[in-house]
C-alpha cells in the first residue's frame, strides 16, 4: 500500500507532461496510419456484417437477402439480375466424365465458364486449368498450362482440363474453420461467400488447385455480367473470399448442362446423374477405362477421366 | 487491483533515454505496419506477394515461428517449477511475459492474413459456426487463446501477490503452471497438425513435423530469452547468477542437435527414396531448376550447424560467443520454419507449376509492424513487472 502511494506521489510534472504528450502523439499518428482505409474498395454494409450462415437462414431471411443483393447488383452494374437458389434434387448425384481422347485443349470451356459464372476479369479468375502433357506419361511437373492458343490440338500431346473434382471426401470442407464450405446432397461443394473469412486453409488443402481467392475487388463490367444467378454459385463475389466451380448448379439443378460442357466442340465432356442407371455417365463408367486424379489421396473425386475414341 | 495496474502504468513512463528511444522506435514501426495493414484492408491481399499458387506466405511463416517462441517459455518454466531452480525462478516470469507477447503477435499474424477480418466473429463458438473438432484451425484458435489466458493469469497472479508483499499461494497458481506446461506442447503440436494433416501437400504430410517444430522452438525461444536476460542484467534491471545461463545453454544445445537430427532424418527419407514428392525438397535446395528459396535454406542450415559447433566447442563459456550463437539460432530457425517450411509446400503447385513467391514491400511492412508491436508490448510489460520482481519478499 505504502509502496503505491510512494509511486503515485513520485510522478513528477515532467513525467506527466511527457506521458500526456506521448499518448496524444500516438493517438494522432494512429489515426494518420489508418488513413488508407478512407479509399477502401469495398466496405461491408451493416446488413452484410450481421448476416447469418446460409444454413441458418429462414426462408424469409433468404427472400430479404436475395432482394437486397438484387438491388445492390442493379445499383452497381445497372442491370437487373435475378438470384435463384435451386435445391439439390432427391436421388440425384452429379458426376462429370472427361474424355482425354477427344480434348483438343482449345480452352473454350475455360472462357465459357468465366462468362457463365461471373468471375473477375481483372484480375482474371479461371476455374478450369487445361494441362498440356507429353504422350507417354501423366507427369504434372512436366506439363504446361500456359501454352499459347495456337499450340492447342497438337497431335504429339494430350490435353487434360482440371477443375473442382467435387470429392466425396473433400479435404477443403474438412479444414474450413467456420463451415463456410460444405458438400450438398447432390455432391456439389459450395461456398457461402458471405460467411467465408478468407483464411485460405481450403486452398492449401485442395490437391487439385481448384479453389480461387479474390485477392482484390473482382473486376467485372456490366456487359460481362450474367444476370441469371445462383446464390451459392455465380452471384458476384466479394473481395477477400474464396470461390470455385459448382458444376454450374444454378443450371444443372434445373435440368441444364454446365456451361463448359455446352461449349465443348469435340464432345469430350459428359455430365449426368450418377444414381440414374440409364444416364450417359453411368454407361461410360461401366464400359470404359476411367481413372481419377490422385487416387492415392482418398479424396474420391466425382470427376472422371477416360481415354476413349 | 487498480493500484497494481496504475503502478505498472507509471513504471512504463520511467526510463532512460535509450528506453525512450527504443519505445518510440517500436511505436513508430508499429504505426508504419498499421498503415500498411490499412492499405491491405482497403485494396485486398493483392497488395501482398501471395497468389492462388503460393497462397500462404510471410504472415503464416512468422505465425509458425512465433507459436514456437511462445511454447518455448516452458523450457524456463520446467527448471523453475519442476526442478525448483531458485535462480531460474527469479526470472521465469520474464519468459512467461514473452509467451504472452508472442501469443499477441501470433494472433495478429493470423488476423492480417485473413481476407475478411471483419468476419472474425464467425470463429467465435456459438455466435459463429465453429467447425470443431473437424478443422485443425479451430483447435488452434482454442489452444492459442487458452495459452494466452493461462500465461496472463500466472504472470498476473505472481506479480500481483508480490506487489502486495505476499507470497503467492501455491494452490492458486501451481496447478495452472503445470497445465500451462502441457498446454505449451499442445500449441505447437496443434500448429504442426494444421500442416501435417494435409494429404494434398506431401511436403507437409509428415509425422515428423510436430516433433521438429518443438525441437526448433526449444532452440530458438530460449536463445531469445538468453539475449533478453543478459541485456537486462547488463543494464542493471535484474540480477541472477551465471548458472541460469549455463542451464539454458544446455537446453538450447540439446534442442538444436535434436532439430538438426530430425531435419536430417526427413531429408534422408525424401532423397533416398527419390519418390515424386522429393521435388519440393529439391526445389527448396535449388537442385531442381531455379529457386529463390535455395540461398535462404542453405544459410539457415549453415547457421544452425555453425551454432551447434560453437555450442559444443569450449568457446561456449564465453559470453560473446554465446550471444553470437544465440543470434545465429534465432535467424537460422526463423528462416528454416518460415521460408523453409511454409513456402516450399506450394512449389511446385498441386498441378506441378513452379511459381515463385516474393513478398511485397507492403506485406513486409505489415510483418515488421507486428513484430514491433509485439516487442513494444513485451517491453512495456517488462518495464511494469521488473520493479515488482525486484521488491524484497
UniProtKB/TrEMBL annotation, chain A:
Taken from the UniProt entry, a GO cellular component term is:
cell envelope
Q: InterPro entries, from UniProt?
A: 4Fe4S_Fe-S-bd, 4Fe4S_Fe_S_CS, ET_IronSulfur_Cluster-Binding, TAT_signal_bac_arc
Listed GO MF terms:
4 iron, 4 sulfur cluster binding; metal ion binding
Domain 4Fe-4S ferredoxin-type positions: 157-217, 239-273
Q: Keywords in UniProt for this one? A: 4Fe-4S, Iron, Iron-sulfur, Metal-binding
Q: Which Pfam families match?
A: Fer4_11
What Gene3D superfamilies does the record point to?
3.30.70.20
Q: Does the keyword rRNA processing apply?
A: no
Q: What is its main location?
A: other
Report the locations given in the UniProt record. Cell envelope
The question of whether Transmembrane helix is a record keyword is answered with no
Checking PANTHER family in the record gives: PROTEIN NRFC, PROTEIN NRFC HOMOLOG
**Which protein, by its recorded name, is this?**
4Fe-4S ferredoxin-type domain-containing protein
TrEMBL record, chain B:
Q: Which GO terms describe its cellular component?
A: plasma membrane
Please indicate if the UniProt record lists Acetylation as a keyword. Answer: no
Which chain regions cross the lipid bilayer? 20-38, 58-82, 94-116, 136-160, 172-193, 213-232, 244-264, 293-313, 320-343, 363-382
Where does the UniProt entry say this protein principally localizes?
membrane
Superkingdom is Bacteria
Q: Which Pfam families match?
A: NrfD
From the Swiss-Prot or TrEMBL record, state where the protein is found. Answer: Cell membrane
Keywords, alphabetical: Cell membrane, Membrane, Transmembrane, Transmembrane helix
Family, according to the entry, reads as follows: Belongs to the NrfD family.
- What's the protein's topology in the membrane? Multi-pass membrane protein
Q: What name does UniProt use for this protein?
A: Hdr menaquinol oxidoreductase integral membrane subunit
Amino acid at each position: 500500500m505504502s509502496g503505491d502511494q510512494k509511486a503515485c506521489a513520485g510522478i513528477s510534472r515532467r513525467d506527466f507532461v511527457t506521458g500526456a504528450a506521448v499518448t496524444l502523439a500516438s493517438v494522432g499518428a494512429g489515426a494518420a496510419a489508418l488513413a488508407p482505409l478512407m479509399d477502401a474498395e469495398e466496405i461491408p454494409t451493416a446488413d452484410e456484417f450481421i448476416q447469418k450462415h446460409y444454413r441458418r437462414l429462414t426462408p424469409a431471411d433468404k427472400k430479404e437477402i436475395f432482394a437486397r443483393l438484387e438491388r445492390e447488383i442493379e445499383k452497381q452494374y445497372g442491370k437487373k439480375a435475378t438470384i435463384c437458389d435451386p435445391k439439390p434434387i432427391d436421388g440425384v448425384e452429379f458426376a462429370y466424365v472427361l474424355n482425354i481422347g477427344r480434348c483438343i485443349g482449345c480452352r473454350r470451356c475455360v472462357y465459357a465458364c468465366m462468362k457463365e459464372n461471373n468471375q473477375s476479369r481483372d484480375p482474371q479468375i479461371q476455374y478450369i486449368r487445361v494441362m498440356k502433357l507429353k504422350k507417354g506419361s501423366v507427369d504434372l511437373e512436366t506439363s504446361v498450362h500456359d501454352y499459347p492458343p495456337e499450340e492447342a490440338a497438337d497431335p504429339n500431346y494430350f490435353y487434360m482440363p482440371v477443375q473442382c473434382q467435387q470429392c466425396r471426401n473433400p479435404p477443403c470442407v474438412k479444414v474450413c474453420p467456420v463451415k463456410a464450405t460444405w458438400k450438398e446432397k447432390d455432391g456439389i461443394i459450395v461456398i457461402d461467400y458471405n460467411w467465408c473469412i478468407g483464411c485460405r486453409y481450403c486452398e492449401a488443402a485442395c490437391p487439385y488447385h481448384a479453389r480461387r481467392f479474390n485477392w482484390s475487388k473482382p473486376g467485372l463490367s456490366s456487359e460481362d455480367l450474367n444476370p441469371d444467378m445462383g446464390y451459392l454459385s455465380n452471384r458476384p463475389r466479394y473481395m477477400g473470399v474464396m470461390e470455385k466451380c459448382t458444376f454450374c448448379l444454378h443450371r444443372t439443378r434445373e435440368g441444364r448442362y454446365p456451361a463448359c460442357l455446352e461449349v465443348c466442340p469435340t464432345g469430350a465432356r459428359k455430365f449426368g446423374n450418377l444414381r440414374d442407371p440409364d444416364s450417359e455417365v453411368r454407361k461410360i463408367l461401366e464400359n470404359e477405362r476411367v481413372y481419377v486424379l490422385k487416387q492415392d489421396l482418398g479424396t474420391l473425386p466425382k470427376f472422371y477421366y477416360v481415354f476413349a475414341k | 487491483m487498480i493500484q497494481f495496474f496504475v503502478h505498472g502504468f507509471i513504471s512504463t513512463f520511467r526510463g532512460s533515454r535509450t528506453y525512450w528511444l527504443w519505445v518510440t522506435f517500436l511505436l513508430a514501426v508499429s504505426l508504419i505496419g498499421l498503415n500498411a495493414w490499412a492499405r491491405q484492408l482497403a485494396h485486398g491481399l493483392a497488395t501482398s506477394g501471395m497468389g492462388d499458387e503460393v497462397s500462404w506466405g510471410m504472415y503464416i511463416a512468422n505465425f509458425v515461428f512465433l507459436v514456437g517462441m511462445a511454447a518455448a517459455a516452458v523450457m524456463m518454466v520446467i527448471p523453475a517449477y519442476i526442478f525448483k531452480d531458485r535462480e531460474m525462478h527469479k526470472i521465469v516470469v520474464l519468459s512467461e511475459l514473452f509467451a504472452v507477447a508472442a501469443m499477441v503477435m501470433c494472433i495478429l499474424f493470423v488476423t492480417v492474413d485473413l481476407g475478411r477480418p471483419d468476419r472474425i466473429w464467425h470463429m467465435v463458438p456459438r455466435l459463429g459456426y465453429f467447425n470443431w473438432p473437424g478443422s485443425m484451425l479451430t483447435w488452434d484458435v482454442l489452444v492459442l487463446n487458452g495459452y494466452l489466458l493461462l500465461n496472463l493469469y500466472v504472470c498476473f497472479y505472481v506479480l500481483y501477490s508480490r506487489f502486495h508483499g505476499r507470497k503467492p499461494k501455491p494452490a492458486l497458481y501451481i496447478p495452472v503452471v503445470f497445465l500451462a506446461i502441457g498446454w505449451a506442447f499442445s500449441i505447437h503440436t496443434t500448429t504442426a497438425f494444421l500442416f501435417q494433416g494435409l494429404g494434398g501437400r506431401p511436403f507437409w504430410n509428415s509425422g515428423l513435423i510436430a516433433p521438429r517444430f518443438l525441437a526448433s522452438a526449444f532452440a530458438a525461444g530460449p536463445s531469445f530469452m538468453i539475449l533478453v536476460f543478459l541485456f537486462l542484467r547488463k543494464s542493471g534491471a535484474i540480477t541472477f547468477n551465471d548458472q541460469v545461463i549455463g542451464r539454458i545453454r544446455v537446453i538450447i544445445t540439446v534442442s538444436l542437435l535434436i532439430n538438426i537430427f530430425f531435419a536430417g532424418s526427413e531429408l534422408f527419407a525424401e532423397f533416398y527414396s527419390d519418390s515424386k514428392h522429393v521435388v519440393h525438397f529439391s526445389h527448396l535446395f535449388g537442385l531442381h531448376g531455379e529457386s529463390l528459396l535455395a540461398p535462404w535454406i542453405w544459410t539457415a542450415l549453415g547457421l544452425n550447424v555453425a551454432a551447434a559447433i560453437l555450442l559444443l566447442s569450449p568457446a561456449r563459456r564465453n559470453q560473446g560467443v554465446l550471444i553470437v550463437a544465440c543470434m545465429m539460432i534465432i535467424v537460422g530457425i526463423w528462416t528454416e520454419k518460415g521460408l523453409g517450411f511454409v513456402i516450399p509446400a506450394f512449389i511446385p503447385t498441386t498441378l506441378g507449376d513452379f511459381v515463385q513467391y516474393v513478398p511485397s514491400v507492403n506485406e513486409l511492412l505489415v510483418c515488421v509492424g507486428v513484430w514491433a508491436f509485439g516487442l513494444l508490448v513485451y517491453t512495456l510489460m517488462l518495464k511494469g513487472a521488473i520493479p515488482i520482481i525486484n521488491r524484497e519478499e
